[in-house]
Amino acid sequence: MENSSIVVTALQDILTWAGHHVVEIIIFLSLFLEISKIKINPISALIKFIFRPIRKEINDMKEEIKNDMDELKNDLTSQINSLRKDQEKEKEAIDELIYSNEMSEISRIRWEIIEFASSIGNGQLHVRDEYRHIKDDYKKYEKLIDKYELDDGTVSEDMEKINEHYNENKDTTSVFF
Description:
Blueprint: H1 2-20, H2 22-30, H3 42-121, H4 128-148, H5 155-169
């Protein structure tokens, strides 16, 4: 009986010790065992618990970066739209200047042709280069008139007179005709 009492006492000591160390035993066994219905994995839980604040901080940083990027995108889009509007205004101003300049050029050429035709009619003599200049100006004039679909007026008639006078006198040896 002595042997059986030693065994019983030993078993009681083991159960008492196990009763005091249940948590440690469960943790030790969970390293090697997994219960399929209830998953108890204290190491995974511990790692998740330790890294939870770090993951939260990373997620917060990602969200902050996303918000900053969205804000930057909106700012850039706004600036691009503003620049486009400014460019449109500048283009309109340039177009107006070009139009004004071309209208002035039409007026200048028209006056020059009318005056040249009048001087020929009054018998004033001109050199060949003046005729060439008037003809070159008339080509510019025609392009501008066509571009803006304007009425030619009497300029084409005056140019015909200038061309007739030039053709009648171009074979002369005189510098002026």
